[in-house]
Amino acid sequence: MCVVARCYHWHHCSLLVNMSRTGTKLDAKKVNSELFTLTYGALVAQLLKDYENVEDINKQLERMGYNMGIRLIEDFLARTGSGRCYDFRDTAEKIQSGFKIFLGITPTITNWSPAGDEFSLCFETNPLTEFVELPDHCLNLKYCNILTGVLRGACEMVQMEIACWFVQDQLKNDNVTELRVKFVKRLEDAIPAGED
Amino acid sequence: MKQQIIDSKANPNATGEADECLFEYLHAELVNYVLTKSSNTAEGEEELSRLEWMGFSVGYRIIERLTREWSRFKDELDMIKFICTDFWSSLYHKQIDNLRTNHHGVYVLQDNAFRLLDKVGTSNSKQYLKESPRLLAFTCGLLRGSLANLGIISTVTAETTTLPSCKFHVQVQRI
């Protein structure tokens, strides 16, 4: 049994970078960012193929975001060395800095509720939607819904239950993308008996 | 609706840059998702074509953006070398370690510490070897898609015998 390809002689190819090339060097950060954006786009496209109901896609994206968020919080804490939040305003600022670290954007914090338990994050730009146009039959699709899951998952890991949803979306012709975040409750630490 | 979108694209400098760990977590979720959707084939192999397809569509698009201001490639080997060096190091932080070809349309790209396997197995670990195809299918598609947009129709398969090293076999289809 001879695999055809192995009947030929093999040759090594030198991979020394060709210095005479005139092209500019690729910017690894930029490439990584586009890789993420495009991969996310491919995922949404795949979900659109697999599910008939747009609501199911929104749910699926949220769930995936949740799974990412519970891991991402560890990166966040390790990099920033930040401690527990004093209050929900502190939380809002930390979420904002999380966007800076991971997506390179700084959403503005606005529209605090009088009770101080609800605020909005407004995005003027959003790397996730960089190459995106929504076709008309996808009006109910929350394209960036993964973000709501990420926030929920990340906050849950620091004993905070939040609810999170989009109220405005640039993909749907709004001026900004607005993500509403609501504090629900503190989760109790499950401390083993006998420890403080 | 369309007008809005054109406006937002008129300002390319305002876009942020995603951190590299996001891709890794997202990739993990893709794998996760595909596994819940797929049924095992008769041989007990997992059905990973969804992953491959997603990789293909990403590769097809990303190469177009990366090579936009690049000088024209001399030939097929030149394109494959670009994939092994600049493309690979931008995506996966290191070059392909070894490229071999039989000069009859088969290329073997060997990466001794592939980024998506790097944290799965320490040197020569066999523990997660069985699961490793899940972590390679997307990149197989990525390679196939990139080459497709450069005008090379191919099939790409991956094999790994010891983590975290792996080999990608590119078989060019000549018409």
Automatic annotation (TrEMBL), chain A:
One Pfam family linked to the record: TRAPP
Transport is among the record's keywords: yes
Keywords: Endoplasmic reticulum, ER-Golgi transport, Golgi apparatus, Transport
Positions in coiled-coil regions: none
A single cellular component GO annotation: Golgi apparatus
Domain of life: Eukaryota
Keyword Endoplasmic reticulum tagged: yes
Principal subcellular localization: endoplasmic reticulum
Subcellular location: Endoplasmic reticulum; Golgi apparatus, cis-Golgi network
CDD domains, A to Z: TRAPPC3_bet3
GO annotation terms (biological process): Golgi vesicle transport
Function: May play a role in vesicular transport from endoplasmic reticulum to Golgi.
Subunit structure comment from the entry: Homodimer.
Family membership: Belongs to the TRAPP small subunits family. BET3 subfamily.
Full protein name: Trafficking protein particle complex subunit
Organism: Dinoponera quadriceps
UniProtKB/TrEMBL annotation, chain B:
Major location category of this protein: Golgi
Coiled coil: none
GO cellular component: cis-Golgi network; trans-Golgi network; TRAPP complex
GO biological process, alphabetically ordered: endoplasmic reticulum to Golgi vesicle-mediated transport
InterPro entries: NO_sig/Golgi_transp_ligand-bd (IPR024096), TRAPP_component (IPR007194), TRAPPC6/Trs33 (IPR037992)
Subcellular location as annotated: Golgi apparatus, cis-Golgi network
Record-linked Gene3D superfamilies: Trafficking protein particle complex subunit 3
PANTHER family (UniProt xref): GEO08327P1 (PTHR12817:SF0), TRAFFICKING PROTEIN PARTICLE COMPLEX SUBUNIT 6B (PTHR12817)
Family under the similarity heading: Belongs to the TRAPP small subunits family. BET3 subfamily.
Identification of the protein by name: Trafficking protein particle complex subunit 6B
Organism, scientific name: Dinoponera quadriceps (South American ant)
Lineage, highest ranks first: Eukaryota, Metazoa, Ecdysozoa, Arthropoda, Hexapoda
Gene field: LOC106750749
